[in-house]
Every structure is written in structure tokens, then in C-alpha cells.
Records
---
Amino acid sequence: MSGPRAPQPDAQPGRPAAAPPLPRAQARVDDNGSRARQSQPDLARRAALERSRGRLVLTAMGFGVLFAAVGTKLAIATMLDPREPRRIAMQAATGAPVATAASRAPITDRNGEILAVSLPVTELVANPRQIENPAQVADQLARILPQMDRAKLAARLSGDKQFAYIARALTPRQTQAVNDLGVAGLEFHTSERRYYPQGRAAVHVLGNVDVDNEGVSGVERYFNERLRQAPDQELRLSIDVRVNVALRDTLTQAISDFNGIGGAGMLEDVRTGEIIGMVSLPDYDAGDIGGATPEQRFNRATVGTYEPGSTFKLLTTSMALDYGTANLYSTFDAGHPIRIGRFTIRDFQGKNRVLSLPEVIQFSSNIGAARIAIQVGAQRQREFLGRMNMLSRLHLELPELATPLAPPASLWRDASTYTIGFGQGISVTPLHVINAVSTIANGGTLRQPTLLMQPPGTQRDGVRVITEKTTELVRKLMRVVVTDGSGKTAEVPGYFLGGKTGTAQKAGPNGGYVQGKRITAFAGAFPMQAPRYAIYLMIDEPKPNAHSYGYATAGWVAAPAAARAVARIAPILGMVPDDPKDPAILQSLYVPLQPGRGPAPRNPAPTGAAQAAAQPASQPGAAAAPATTRPASTRNLATPPRPLAPPATTTPPGTAENPTRGPLRTTEALPAASGTGGGRWDNTYAAAR
């Protein structure tokens, strides 16, 4: 029997020796039991981890949705729809007014196009007492605001004052750049600025405001209180910006072609008196009033006064027909000049014979118009022009309006009657001329012009100043000017434009007239069978060119411009051209140029406002007049005409100004001054053509 086993050399004292290994099956059983006892906590931990993982997934999905929403909102605000400011969205959601609401109402044209609007802007102001280094800050601001002068910036940032304006309208980028400087003493204020998105369109109608948003000119000044007291109600004007652009383009082309210094153009609705278009050139950008010169700010359409020239012969004819001193069968001796003291009235390229009333208008005879006027008399002439508002300031929603220049009653003698009869010796604005033409076109009712849009169907009050039958005949004569007279270049097929040309010399600063300086104009209406609109175009100081064969009269300058304007404007206004050969229209506008050759009534009664018993019109015998509108020349054999000196220009044969005569020799005669086919004054004064 063996004794106890000796201890192992590495066994620690006091510890029992390791138990002998168990059999393999028993060891496996013990391991499985231990493994089973340790699996319960592991399962709990694993379950907790699974729950945490699910929560993390849900949290991640929530953050993903949140970031997707933020990204979508940023994309909409910055790329898809960046125009709607947050303050407007807030106002729409809450209904509460915001601090940046405009304090001045917008102005629109008749179609709702915005002409003027106030928008919020950021102003940069400074407190110089808080700025430590003004020179350094001025350098920094000059780099951000290059349009500002560094020396002026340094001066504004210096001193003991507590407030100074630096810039009144900063862009968002400039605002951020200034903010990034972190300069103490620089602050931002919210204000508003008036913007004119149409640029130069209707600039003289709109006017401007000052830095305090107070109107200083145009409708901005006239309606200043209305625009400030009702900022949420737009002011809708009668102006059509499309028509204004067409008028401006046409006028610009005419001024450029003939090297003029300026011009004016207007379009008026003859039924309501609404001004549809008004242009004065040169003009300026409404958003840059500080850069405009006095010449650019001057409104030639309402402030400029000019001798109307031969366009005034329409009024002279209407006056004589209304007072009964002339009728369709009247004739006037234009074969002899009219002498007044040391002055002489002549016709430019006159016919040197007796002219019928239609021929006086067709050939724009100064002598004939003067004789028509003197038959009416000075007192009645002044009375008629007073009724037509040609001697007083018109009413229009603009502060810039001029009063006509005319002789006082005490000095209105025969000489004035003669010259005013053909548009000389009196100065009126283009607004006066177009309103008078509008009165003739609408049947004789004088209405004050307006710049406010009238609701459709509105019947504005007016005063009858000419009988309806008188205006019917005068409208036919206006059409004759375009078909057979000095305004042939104004013809627009299908629109039956009628009117009168006028060329007037410009008066000098010391009296008399300036040679070579003239005003050319065309005043008319369309369509003449049923007038809807009156048009006026004027070019200031046109110069002859090769295309016009050395002429710069209204027939060469203003009449073609009127044709181009009507061709563009009429379709814009929805007017469809009629058949130029429509027999009914041609018959309604027909008037014989020499009605005396046909059977005339035995006793044509005087007609007009002065004698209420009658109305001036085409006489019954006019229907039997010959069909031609270009009668053969006749001559008064009893009083042979006195030969006139030809003009100081050469007229090619077959031109619109001189359709039949051949080239004329150059002489030392004074050039004619106003109207096409008129005459001139000897010595100091030049007459209207």
C-alpha cells in the first residue's frame, strides 16, 4: 500500500493540491449546467440592445425627416420662390400690418401696369461720436459702396454730431458686408424708396418724389395727399404705357432723322378727353431725377408755348362757318399779298388765284386764312378763341401747365386778326392744340382733358362750342389735307387719318423770328368717318436732309411721323383697319374742292353759334359737285395775280410738297415759316405754312 503523494514543487504552502481530473462525461455535464446558468443575463442584455437599436433607428428617421423638411423649405425660399418675403407671408397668415408697409400708394396705367411703387429699403446711418477711427471706417465703406466718395464719407463720420446719413438704399449684399465690419456706431434703419419700373415711359406725367417721399412734380405732386392718405388704393391713370412707348419711339426717330433738339407727342380720346399718351423729348429715367438736366425735365407738351402755325387754320375755318361769315361756296382772293404797314403776308408756293374754302385748307393758304379771319372780325375772333379755351390755362391733373400768350383785348386789332388767322401772333401749348382738334372731332363739345382713367361708358360733362354740322364739314376738310394736301405723307391705309400740318418759325429772345429755326407739327384725328382719337406730334428745330430734298417743313417731318405712330398705336388699341376703298366711307368723307363749279343754293343762310337759326354744313348743292377732288386751276382774270418770289430752296418735281411744279431757282427771299403751302412775312415776321 503506497503512502501519501508528495506535494508538487510549485504548490503554494497551505493550499490543498489540485483535485484529480474527472471523467470526460461528468465534466461535460458540469459545463452544460454552468452554461445554462450564465445564459439568463446575456439574453437580458441582448434584449436591451435590440430595444436601444430600434429607438436609435426611429430617432435617426425623425432627424432625417426634419432635415428633409428644412432642406425643402430652404430650396423653396432660395431657388423656387425667392420673391415672397417672410414679412408678407406673416401678414397674410396673421392679417396684422407689418412695420414696412408702404406709406405711398402705387400708380398704374389704364391696364394695371405699375408705373410707380414704394418698396422697403435699408438705410445706413452713423453715430460719429461712437466711431473711433473715421478715416479707416471711410476706407472700408468706400470699398463696399464704390459709388460714394471717400472724402465725403470721412467728413460724415467725423465730428460731435450723433446722426448722419451714409447711404439711403443698400442692397442685401452691401448690408451684409457692412454688418461684417462690426464697426460700433454704424446702424441700419428700415425705410422705403419710390421705384419707377417703366424707366422713361410717361416720366413727365408721373413726376418724382424727394428723399422724404413727398411729390415734387407731375401727378406725384398733384395727387400727393391722395397717395399718402390712401396708400392701399392704387391711382390708375388714363395713360396706356404701350401707346406711350410707341409715341416715344416714333418721335425719337423723327428727331434723329432731322437732327431736331426735341419734340412732343400726345394722344387723346375724343369722347372722354382722356390723355392716352404724352411724351416730351428729351426726357430722363424717372429713377434718376438727380442726373436729369433742366432741358430734360421740361415738359414741352404742357409747359412749352409755341406758335401753332397752320394747324390753327382749322379753328379759323370752324369760326367762320359757325358765325356764318363763310360757307362751303365762299371764295377768297389769294392772288395778291396782304400789306399791313411795312409788313406783307404772302403764300409760300401759292396758287396766285382765287381759292375756294376747301382749297384754302388744301393748299394751306395764309392769305386765304387771313381773309377768312378778317371777315369774322377781331372781337368775334377773340370771343371764339376764348370759348375754345385757347386764351386760358387748361385744367389737367398736372402742376406744370402754361397759359397761352396772346395780345390783350386793347391791342387785338386787325393786324392781330390777320396773323392769328393762320396761327401766328399767338402762342399755345400742344395740349391746347390737341384739345381743340378733339373738340372738332367729337362734334363740337369741349371737355377738359384728364389723366385719370374713366370707367367704360362714362359720359363726361362738356360745353358745346361749335355746331355739329360745322365740325362735320371741317372733318372732311381735314381728310382732304391728307388725301390731296400738304399731309399726304400722313396717310395710313384703312385708318382714314385726317388733320393739318403746321410749320412755324421760332421767335427770338429779343423779338422777331430766328432764321432757320422752326417748329413742325401735325394735328389730326382718326378714323375721320367716326373719330375716336386725336393725335399731335411736334418736332422742335428740325434740319433739312437729303431724303427731304432740303426741306424741313411739317409735310416732310411731322406728317410721316404721325403716319408711323398711328400705324403702331391703332392695333394696340384694338382698332381694325377698314377697307380703304369702301364706297360708303369715301362718300361720307367726300367734299368738292371747288364747290362753286356745281349748282349752289340761291341764299345760303348764315349759320353758327352767333346765329342760332342755322347750322353750318355741306350745302345741298354739294351732292351735284363733280366727282374729281383735283380740280383744274382757275384764275381771276379781273385781278391778275402778282408774281411771288420763289422760296430759297429747290423743290424737285413730283414731290408731296410740290407735286406738279418743276425745280425752282434759288433766290434771296426769306423762307416760309409755318404750315406746308403757306406764306411768310416780309422784314421781321415769317408767316405760317
---
Amino acid sequence: MGRTYEQGDMIIRLPGDESLAWDQVTVTELPDDDLIVRAFEGDGTVNLVCCAAITVPESVLDELRACGGEGVIAPRTAPENTVTLIEHDGVCVWTVPTASDPPVTSDPPVTSDPPVTSDSPVTSGAPDTPAEPALMDGIRTVAFRRPSGTRPAALIGSGRTPGLPTRVRAAIFRLPSVAAAALVRTVETAIVHPGLITITDRNPLSWRRFRIGDVTPPATRGVVRVLLLVHGTFVTTVGGFGVLESNDDAKAFLHSMLGRYDAVLGFTHRTLSESPKQNADELRQVLGSLAAEVRDRFGGATLAVDVVTHSRGALVARSFVELTAPVNGVGIEKLVMVAGPNAGTLLAAPTNWRTLLDLWTALAADVARQWAGPIAEKVTRESLSLVAACAKAVIAQAVDAQNLPGLASMRPSDNPFLDELNAPGGGAVRPPYRTVVTDFEPDQIVGPLNPVGDALERLADDVVDPLMGTANDLVVNTDSMSEIDGSSLPTASVAIVPSSTGTQHLSYFVDTVSLRMIEGELRR
């Protein structure tokens, strides 16, 4: 027994019997000012089909847990090209039906209960018939008990402050109707347009494709000094570094960099369907073109480039330095790698991709709450579209290391790319390598945790730490960030962000301490 609710094209089935206080459970459409709703206004490559908020009082939640049931959230129609995102107090889970699953259908409404519409809150639903459809693999999304295992879905409905209602948000997205194996490349090609981006201290939405006129005449004759930012996975330059406009400390950092360099540029590249080595080849081409333009415009001047990378961007920059031929007129002076998986990360192993996708979404939500307005909406749409495509393909088991070379390049073993990159005795002339690292330890954070921080604490304790078995920033193990060619960098080349800051993998560029450390490494 239980209750079934309908919200637009969404079916929501909750467990329990008629003794539960169903009139206290509400299912409503997400408000117009919700970030996901705003972000997915209008048509795009990936579109929002419907969304809902499910609110359950703590007293009812206790009864649901006691009955040991699990709820179901699923699309009513056309599930073959949809994917569902469930968020519960910062814990996120991506789910899709499998090919063998029957569609979830609603039960006939009971005359005493009015039909549920998307226009009004729902306080009661129609009772389920005794014969429930089989729960879909990957559709069991609202767990009111803590089953064994380390999937983030097991955390839903647990670990809450007593007395507070639980609120679950669900969103169903429609993806392009292409074969699952081609889905990621299709979505990434539509969203990510590789090339150099000019970064300014104006709204990141105004950042544009680089033009030679964006370079300030060099203060030092014959040398144009450039800061190049290389983003990580699931984002573009705006998505990776737009956070530099999110708070006063981040703005101060960017303003300082704009005053220090003749140009601050970002390198936008595809992080899923292309490998870091492919990205590096493309970077070599665009920097070669830039060097030629600089020579023509500034009387034979050359480029002196400092590089700051985030996450997977470290592998792109190192591939450019170590695995491609030198570019005439381009000198890499410094390379500062922030949270780079230089020796890989266990989350990038194909068997852990689902956990990575769920976790990355939760971390992105932690950072997105610090933004507002159109920039947050653009970044949310781009990144969630990319993650949704990955989730659909991964859960459908339609992709592997060959289809997702961008992710596979970060796995710590059985990885020819990292074997080549970290082979000792390479002949390439390298700039000084420096890293910025941290270990996310919730019990060391100074100050109270917000609800999202509480979710990250549960993810760290119940998912990431047991999986990795060593210090990490929730995505990359800390030792890997500074392991080059099988050996750790010297202590003087490693800046450690204290765990007390609460810095996690996607927040280095919004946190005051880590920003100061990045700037300090550039000024050394």
C-alpha cells in the first residue's frame, strides 16, 4: 500500500499504509524562482520536462522509515530519452529506467481524492492498488531507510535534524533522441565551443572569444605576459571560473590578476568526449595562432604564459608541456595546478562513474548557492546538461573508456595516458610545477555547517572516504594532486589549504584562503 501523486509528467509513489498522516505530505511544482526552473527556461539541447518538491514532516518520515519502504519517482511517458535528478538536502542522485523496465503508471484516482494537477499543492493522493509495478533499477530514488552499500541514494531521508520536515526536489530532463553511445558527444558538441576566451572583471556572461585587441600593450618590451586558466570536467571557462565574480575576495583576486598580466585568458575545451592529449593538441594550435598575432602586432614580441589549472585541467596543461612539440614564441613560465588528478582518482574508474556524477552534482550545488542571476542560470544549465547526458549513457551501460576518454583519462590504473604522462625521465623542459591541495574533513571545519555542508559531511563519511581510503577533497585524493612521474613534489612546491576552511573540490576559486595561496604561487 501507499500513495501515488502526479505532478505534470512525473509519477511519485510513496510507501506506507492508510494510517499515515497523508494530509501532511505535500507535492508541489517547483517555484518559478527555483534555480533549475530559471536555468532551463526555453528550448535547448537538454530540456526540463517537469519538476516537483515533496515535503514530508518529520513525524511522517519516521513512520515511512519504520515501514522500511522506498518511494519511486519516474516519468509517466517517453522514459527512453529522459533522466531524473533527485536532490535531498544537498545529496543528489541521477536515475534512469533500464530497457527492461515497464513504465511506471499511476493508479486510478479514488473519487474522494481530487486529481493532482501541477497548478496547486497536493495534500493527499490516491491509494495504491495492492499490485505494485516492479521497482525500476535506478528509479528507486526516495529511500526512507538506510540500506547497505555506499550509493548516495542510501542517504536520502537519513541524517536529518530531528523535528524538521524533509524536502525532496525532483526534476526530469529530456535529452536528444540519439543512441546512448553518441549522447555525450552530441550534447557536448552543442554546448562546448573550444577556443581561447578573454576574461575580464565584468559579468562572466560578457566574456567572449579572444581577439588580439584584448591584449594590453606589454609593459615589458618584447614580452606579452599572459595568465591562462584551464578548467576542469563538466564545465566551460565561464562555468569553471565565472565564480571569480561571485564574492568580494574572488573579485579582488581577478582584479589583481588583470593588473598583473597583459591578458587573462581561459581555454575552453571538451572534457568528456576528448582526451587531455587531444585538448593539448588543440591548445597548441590556438597558442600558436596567438603567438603569431602577438609577433605581428607588437613588433616580434613573444608570449610568457603562467598557467593555473583546476582538476582535470592539470592533465591538459601537463600534456601540452610534456607531450607536444614546443610552440615558437610561447614560453610556459609557471604551472599552478589546483586539485589536479596527476596520479588519477578512483572516482574516474568506470565502475565509480555513477558515484562521481551524483557527487559532482552535489558539490556544484554547494558552489551554485553563492551565485545569483543569469550567470548562475547559464552555468547550471550547461553543467547539468553535460552531467545529465553522462548519467543517461553511464547508467544505460552504453559507454566505456573508449566513448568517454575525457573521464577515463583520470582513472588511476589501466590508464595508458597517465602511464605515458608520468613516465620518469621525460625529455621535455618543464616550468616550475606547483600544486594547491586540501583534505575535506568536516569535523575540522571552523563554523557551523549549512544544510548543503551537512550533506557533504554525510557524503564524505559514508561514500567518498570509504571508497578512497585516504585524504581527499571529495573528488581527488590529496596525494595524487602532487604526485608527478611517480614521486611527490617537494614540500615547498605544495600549498596546503587547511581543512578548517571547508574547501571542497569545486570551491577552491571562491574560498579566500585557497585564492590567496593560488596568487602567492603565481607571485613566487
---
Amino acid sequence: MKLDLAKQSQLLIAEDQALAKSHMKYALDQLGFQHVDYVDRASHAITALTNQHYDAVICAYDLREDHGGYGLFEQLRAEHTIPLTTGFVFTSADTSPEAVHAIIELQPDEFLAKPFSVNQLDKRLFKVLRRKKVLAEVYEHMDRGNFEDALDAIDAFLIEPRNAEYFPLALKTKGDLLLLCAHYHDAKDFFEAVINVQDFAWAKFGLSKCYVQLEEFDNAEKTVLELAFNRKTMLPAYDLLSELKIKEHAFDDALECITVASDISPRNISRHQKAHQLSRITHDYKSQFDSAKKVVRYGKDSIHDTPDIYLAAARAGVDFAMTADAADTNNIVKQTNDYLRQLKTAHPKAKVNEQLHVINARLCYLQNDSDKAKTMMEALNLDHWEDKPAEELIDTAKAFHEVGLQGNSIKILETLELKQANNGDNDSLLSQYIKQEKTEKATIALSPRSLNNAAVLHYQKGELTKSFEVFHQAFKIMPKNPAIALNLLQALISKRGAPQGDTVGIAKLIKRCRFSIENAKLSEEQQVRYENIKSRLLQVA
């Protein structure tokens, strides 16, 4: 039977190392495969898969040309070039945790560590080919997006005793299909029934996803935390925990979870993009810039390499510079300008002049040339601005606000918020950020860069109430900045002498300030100042 399957199967091998290719050819000859094509570049593999059907692809993870094996499989999946009826096997000499996690996340059908024996290839490859053959009808429905038909097909498959060898895979596939069909109550019952028989991790993940969709958040968190403490399931568990925290609007916790997952497997672009969105909502400007930089680093020369990733990095750099200490601003601006240069090099024909105009206006403002920045923004062409991408409009709103054209800023954000609502996109991270920006721009007239300076000036003039109010505004949009937190505590102590009025609100504010300070790296002067402030807080408590 094995020999017949080998003779019938069409294989594609993507390998660029001569010795590895020679070993592969020898092994496949020994196993009886007769229809084998070899390519040494990812682009050639894409061409081959576009032109004909293969039963399996064996691909080197560390292809040296084009996007590598990782980028190849990612592109094949994204563009639906490879059907589910085609098996995909990764081979890799790199078995570092980073590489292994990256491969596992892509979910190939098998993984072989180099060097491997003929027997190892025999066992893994034939297992993949047989699975694809017996579940072909299910996979064909799934490739066409007919998930309900696929569900019917998998149910028919599961009642046949002769298919018992493949029941574990078929059960997992059924769980995936129930989720794809949004049958969450049925899926919940199914996963619970599976777990009662055998404690499969995939069933626990499926059950957790059902809990999230059914808003049973306590059950979801309990189940996911169990998975997070297991090294084998830690990565997807932190991803799911992040989704749960987003549902609960606990954005700081969501960012912490997604950051842990990103550190475990740094090549996942969508995870860095989610971290970027969460960082904006939580006003963590450093994390925002770091996440945007990682998108460029890992997305370069891949399907993710678009003008948008460079623009996002530059905008995040400007946001960070607006809120950073003066000593760090020049370095951040330098990095920002470097991403703009990279954009021009990677995409010289990109039509991004208006977006660059806004970024350059913001950079002028950063360099204390606010008059020029305002002139640039007043000269901006706003014809058909409602049709522009959301990220471009958000950056434009920020620029208008920074140069004092607050009305223009709020108008853009109000229009964006309405557009998101009309699209049924009220709960996305982007919508949350637009709402937050609109509220902050409407209630806080000054830019982040101006707030602290204005508050210090009020403090020096003895205008303690006004100083406290402005420092409080600054802390709302820069809660991770220890210098702002120190200034706010100083103003609070000077203004009140002893806590009065809303003592609960004051206590919460003090706690948030102390958390920000104690989780930051302080200079020697800041540390001394903080010790003095703590002593005064104890005296007035």
C-alpha cells in the first residue's frame, strides 16, 4: 500500500542546500516516489503550486533566498495558493525555541529536524499523505468555504469504524468547524464531551474560545490559566488570554499577555500589530514604538512589506517623542526619520505624499517650529478627506490638535467614530482608540509636549490648583511617564496639604502615580525626590 501511495503522489521539494537536496532525493527514491519536482527559491515554489496540484510540499524552513520557508508558507496560506488537501512538511536544522515556536504557529502538517533518516521521513510523510487522502472531501469543502458541508462530511466520517485510526484528527477538525460555523453552544457541549473522555489541550482551547464568545469570562480565564502554566501550551494560551482581556476592556492586562507571547515567538507579525494597537490605548508610547519597529523588522521583504508598516513606525516614533524626556527626543526623531528613508527605498513609487506631509509637520512641531508646523497643516489638501484610511486621518487629527487647530482635529475624529459605527465596528481596538482620542482631544486643549511645561509654569507662579489640574491632564495621556507622576504627586501635596474632598479618588490617583514611578527606571535625582514625596505623603495621610 505504501508503494502504491508513493507512486501516485506528486511532491514538491523546496530546498536550496545541495547536500540536503541530495539526501532528500536519495530518501524519496528509496521510498518509491517517482513524481518529484525540486525548487530552490520561494518564488519558484509559488509558481509551481500555482500551475499544478501537489499532494505534499517538503520545504526547508531556512531557505536562504526570497522570504525563507517561513515567509513562503505564510504567503501560501494568506493567498490560498496551497489547498488543505496538500500536505506541508517543514524541515529545519535550526531547532532553537524561537524557530520551533514560529514553525508550530504556522501549523504545518509535520516538522522534521535535520538531519533525519529515511525511516523518519517514511513515517512522517506517509502519515501526512494518508491523512490528506482520507479527509479529502472535508478539506475540499473547507477550501471552498463551505464549512457547514464540511461539518456534515466530518460527522459522516466519524460514524465509520474503519476510520478509527483518524478519529483524533477528525474530532479536532470537527471542533474547528463548529467554531468556524459560530455554533458556540454546540461547540461547548462537544469540547466538554471530548475532555470528559481525554484531556486534549486542543479541546481545552476550543472550550475556552466558546466561553469567551458566550461571555462566560470567569470560566474562560480559569481554563486558559491552566494552559498558560504548561510550557507546551503557554504561547496560544497567552494569545487567548489577551483576547479575553480585550473583551473585558482590561487593555493593560491584554498588552501584558500579548507581550509575553511576542517574546516567546517574535516572528508573528499580527501579534506585534495587536500589541501596537493595545499600546496606543494604554498610552504606552515606548511599547507602541517597539511593536511598530518589530513589524518592520520581521515584515521586511515579506507579504507584510507595505508602505503602511513604515508609516506606522514613523508615527509611533513621533508619538513617543512627543511624550519622552527631552534628553531622549533627538534619538527617537532620528529613528523616526530612518523609517521614512526606509519607506522611500522599499516603496519609491508609493503615493504617500500627503501622509508624509503630516508626519513632517509633526516633526517640525517636535523641533519647536510650531509656526511652520501650523502653516503646513493649514496648507493640507482636505478634499475628500472622509475617504482616506483611518490611520492617516488619526495622524492628521493629532497634528491639527498639536498646532492648536482643535476644531479640525475633533471633526475628523467624530467623523471617523461615526464611520466605524456605520460599518458595525464599534468594539474593535481601532474603534476604542478613536473614541479615546476624540474624548482626550476635546477635553485637553494642549499637546502632550506642552502640558508638563504649562503645569510647571503654573506651579512656579504659585497657581497650585491650576498646576494640579494640568499635571492631572498630562498624567491621563502619559501615565507611564515617571516624571509626570512625580510632578503630579508634588502638586497634589502642595495643593492640598492634607487629603480632602474626594479622598477615595485621591487615594486611587496616588496609587496609580506610585505604580508608574515604582515600575520605571528612575534617575538618582528622581529617586531622592520620590523618597521625599513618600515621607510627605505619610505625614499628611
